[in-house]
Amino acid sequence: MRALIVLCACFFAVTNLIAQSFMMNPYGCAEVQSLNGKWNAIVDIFGKGESMKLYQNRRPTKDTEIVEYAFGGGLTLDVPGDFNSQSAELKYYEGNVWYQRTFAAKKNPNRRQFIYFAGVSYEAAVWLNGALVGRHEGGFTPFQFEITKLLKDGGNDLVVMVNNSRRVDGIPAMVFDWWNYGGILRDVLLVERPQAYVQDYLVQLKRGQTGVIAGRVTVAGATKPQPVTLSIPELRLQKTLTTDERGDATFEVEARPQLWEPASPKTYAMTLRTGDDLVRDEIAFRTIETRGTDILLNGKPVFLKGVNVHEEIPQRLGRAHSDADAAAILKEVTALGCNFVRTAHYPQNERICRAAEKAGVMIWEEIPIWQGIEFSNPVVLKKAETMLREMIYRDKNRGAIILWSVANETRPSDFRDKVLTELVALTRKLDATRLVGAAFDNIDYDQATSTFTLKDRVADAVDVVGVNRYLGWYKPFPADPKQLKWNVAPKQPMIFSEFGGEALFGRHGSPEIAHSWSEEYQEELYRKNLVMLRNVPNLRGTAPWVLFDFRSPTRMHPQNQDGWNRKGLLSDQGQRKKAWYVMKAYYDSIAK
Ligand code: GCU
């Protein structure tokens, strides 16, 4: 059995890596055609579609022929968007949905064409004009395939099979506390690039130095070393690099950019040009590091006034994906007085990351290793590594992202410790410019000394330890909050990365009765947690769980929840609960 698992692991790794022709920031390229809009769709509950060859999108060619499917004239779905919120019958759907659309193209023999998916949950298979172009697993990171050889002049037929079934060896796996939205959740782009194009780049401050911009550029498709020009006009910086035989070039250049910080989120327009390929981006320059128990932003200690957000617009009952959605979420993040957001529990769409950067909000970003993961299965480590690579690949130039997190609330075991410490090491290898973290709920409490402690090899391996603890909700306070002591990761910065409790907006009752689901109970719970947090010597940030009420099939109380996790500081209609004002006052009391 083990041999078979190992074989599968290798197969998965090879499949996914071959499929990935990686591309950095297609939004910054010149020729990008959006394929968003209404797509035809077929719900394939029994998963017969691939054996029926739906991807051929056939029509009858003779009177005696029947074809028992057709794209068009039936269900249509908006792309981007989850399918669950587009049709009442699909609210709880988990399985295969086939999407199809045609698009016109004009082939240019001197250019290369790619199809880019910003995010498809959970698994995708893509065909163009009847030919398989690739498959991808992972619901929250982008992928793309080169289609140069398959693209036709005129009409092209694009078919995507999406499957959002949960799976034992998935990331996340069989149970998680959010809606299992499936579909083509984010943008689909047709991207055209020259034969030799900028495939990847990193442009950031050299770690710990505010006067040196360093990074690297990779040019794909070049047959010989290429000149690449990096320009940051506002810094009067123009530097031409020459790639090596592999297409790579690294650089360091002296510069004194204004440093990005929450109070002044300065970004610089940047271009990279090679031949007739031009990529544009906006870069925020800042340093982030730890020193003992402090987190230093641009060399100065910073307290992370945060909040957790899911990628969901509750008023619309669906996944967030647009600039307007990002603005709506960030508006409430900044209204709460936050300079920090944890985009739980998966890489959220690029627009939210860019909006946070513009708004001066630092980001903790994570892959969806959430609670029950099959760490003993080698395939799972390969999948996690791929998701980590794709997350860092996409967002490494987002200065607002200060921390990559590898896990949320996982149980210590030999397998789990090995997988997570390997992911921590890989994160550091992929990106030496940021902090590495994880969120832990396996906190011990000693009644005799009223002290919380944590003994965990993974906590020892990260820079920043996140603690999730629902005192006053899942467990009562074990003592007077003022008496509680914390001795967790005493030599590292600790962030209270999740705390809180549920309340139904407009439900009023006693602040002492938890099962009232009253705003007053939630308000008092927040007050008690904040009193306790005064006693945490290495506390360097807080992120209450959660900004908005959000949908979850695990929340089954018909009156109080009805499929909603009610821990929001705001209701699913954006109404601020009493606890919101407690957090607002706390953050306002902390010096900017
Ligand atoms: C956990 C978990 C969250 C979950 C929350 C809750 O800590 O990280 O994803 O929603 O607790 O129970 O509400």
- DSSP strand count: 37
* Secondary structure tally, helices: 8
Bound molecules: alpha-D-glucopyranuronic acid
Q: Strand order, biggest sheet?
A: 23-26-27-28-29-32-34-35
CATH uppermost class of one domain: Mainly Beta
- In CATH terms, what is the fold-level topology of one domain? Jelly Rolls
Question: Which radius of gyration do the C-alpha atoms yield?
Answer: 25 Å
The shape is globular
- Percent of residues in helices comes to 10-25%
Q: In terms of structural class, how would the helical and strand content be classed?
A: alpha+beta
Structure report:
There is one protein chain. The chain is of the alpha+beta class and 592 residues long. Among the domains are: 26-193, Galactose-binding domain-like (Jelly Rolls); 197-289, Immunoglobulins (Immunoglobulin-like); 441-592, TIM Barrel (Alpha-Beta Barrel). The protein is built from 8 helices and 37 strands. The strands form 10 sheets. It has an 8-stranded parallel beta barrel. Strand 30 and strand 31 (451-453) form a beta hairpin. The longest helix is centred in the N-terminal third of the chain and has 18 residues, at 2-19. Bound molecules: alpha-D-glucopyranuronic acid (GCU). The site of alpha-D-glucopyranuronic acid has 10 residues, from loops.
